[in-house]
Design goal:
With 463 residues, the protein is α/β, with parallel strands linked by helices. The protein is 50% helix and 13% strand. The protein has 15 helices and 14 strands. β9 (295-297) and β10 (305-307) form a beta hairpin. α6 runs antiparallel to α7 and α9 (250-262) crosses α10. It is flat.
Length: 463
């Protein structure tokens, strides 16, 4: 190298250039060694597979859900307005494809089980028919925070977003679920507060004797004032009481009335059941008295309706509605009902160990106790009502107890049954489980073959 002909400035650049070229030669020598030496065998062979071409864009399949919680005029107007609004909104967008309007009318949002169209919406989402759901607000979608979040997460896993217009929330976005959870809790608390206020108002009116139920019993109507007697229906109620006092059974009364309905001999077109006839015969309002709070709602959420067996206070008010049946006739019917109940269903008040523990092997109905010719039997409820629907015959209680004692003796003294169960459990434990070594190896081989098949398919598409 000659440095005389160049100044210090040029000498510096020339020196850097020499170092750079020397470094490049060293890197090339190392790469050549890797290619020619044993390191070439260890270097990974990378195949670059480009991404697939984007799918053809199609219209977004959009549906809407609407709900109102009562049948009042204002709620019905809101119900119709929601349906019209979403139908116009979806059909006017050229990038959207209208699927359907799912709407529940007069149903509370505290439980999803009672909403038929809501369940139909979820079923269509699971079938892959919907891409997006429009809802007016989170309170229209659900008033149960737990069910709301569970549904949102399920639909999010299906890549389906829900848009709440009032809160401007889209669950497909990152913060959508958090905001929806906050509003869902607020909606649930609002529903609980309304329910508590309504129950408190019912209690006050019951104490004052001014409570009027939302629905009238059969035979009454509510026009200018509550408990206005409907003469045609009142005649049917009177016939129920008179037939029962004549010795006709409840099931026969219902069957006779249904036969008469076919010829229009009675002014009613309803299908009567023994349970409905029994409720009328036990309803004290037909004698002019009222017993309020026969049922109550639990304090949990969502609330459940249960029969009142002394858990909450009841209120009894005399001479409330206009009587259809004389009080003496009503008391006679109650005495006769109690006597027949003790005769045909003895020991009902006593808790039997067989109660609700015997299930029909044909129809799955729970057996009930019945006395036949002085002997105690357990009968299938469906077979008793209609022998053609279930062929299970009544079982004598003595035979059931003897069979139970035989099985208990075999389990206690004999080892055949227990040995067989122990052998089956041991075989299941020693069998091929999913975590066994050979099963894991097979799963790994299946995964490798699947990956290779996917790679070959992608290479084939690339030509």
């Amino acid at each position: 190298m000659i440095f005389v002909s160049f100044g210090y400035r040029y000498f510096k650049r020339f020196l850097v250039l020499c170092v750079a070229k020397r470094g490049e030669s060293i890197v090339k020598q190392q790469e050549q060694k890797k290619i020619n030496g044993s390191l070439a065998l260890k270097s990974p062979c990378i195949v670059v597979i480009p991404a697939n071409a984007p799918e053809q864009t199609r219209k977004l399949r959009v549906a809407a859900y609407a709900r109102v919680s009562s049948n009042s005029e204002d709620q019905l107007n809101s119900y119709a307005a929601q349906n019209a609004h979403y139908t116009e909104l979806i059909t006017s967008n050229p990038e959207w494809e209208f699927v359907d309007i799912y709407a529940d009318k007069g149903i509370t949002g505290t439980s999803a089980e009672k909403r038929e169209d809501f369940q139909r919406l979820l079923a269509d989402c699971r079938r892959g028919r919907i891409d997006k759901i429009l809802v007016k607000s989170s309170s229209r979608f659900a008033r149960n925070a737990k069910e709301c979040l569970e549904t949102i997460r399920e639909l999010k896993a299906l890549n389906i977003g829900i848009c709440f217009e009032e809160q401007n929330i889209d669950t497909a976005e990152l913060s959508g679920e958090l905001l929806t959870a906050i509003f869902a809790m607020m909606d649930q608390k609002e529903s609980e507060s309304i329910s508590q206020n309504m129950r408190w108002s019912y209690q006050i009116r019951m104490r004052r004797g001014t409570f009027v139920p939302a629905t009238m019993p059969y035979g009454y109507t509510k026009k200018e004032r509550p408990y206005v007697v409907v003469e045609q229906e009142a005649n049917v109620v009177k016939k129920f009481f008179s037939d029962y006092l004549m010795g006709i059974g409840i099931a026969e009364i219902a069957a006779n009335l249904n036969k008469c309905n076919t010829t229009d001999s009675l002014p009613t077109h309803q299908r009567w059941t023994p349970h409905a006839v029994s409720r009328i015969l036990k309803n004290e309002k037909y004698a002019g008295n009222s017993l309020w709070q026969k049922t109550y709602h639990t304090k949990g959420f969502p609330t459940k309706q249960k029969n009142n067996h002394g858990e909450v206070t009841q209120y009894y008010l005399k001479s409330t509605p206009v009587p259809i049946i004389a009080p003496e006739i009503f008391e006679t019917v109650q005495t006769l009902l109690k006597r027949r109940g003790e005769e045909y269903f003895p020991g009902r008040e006593q808790d039997s160990p067989l109660n609700r523990n015997i299930v029909c092997g044909i129809c799955g109905t729970i057996f009930r106790k019945k006395r036949v010719r002085g002997n105690m039997y357990w009968v299938c409820r469906v077979h008793e009502r209609n022998k053609e629907r279930c062929e299970m015959r009544p079982l004598c209680e003595i035979d059931i107890k003897e069979a139970f004692l035989r099985i208990y003796h075999k389990l206690q003294c004999g080892k055949s049954v227990l040995d067989k169960m122990t052998a089956d459990l041991q075989a299941a434990q020693n069998g091929k489980m999913l975590w066994s070594a050979d099963i894991v190896e097979l799963n790994n081989q299946i995964a490798d073959i699947t990956r290779q098949d996917r790679l070959l398919t992608q290479l084939k598409h690339q030509g």
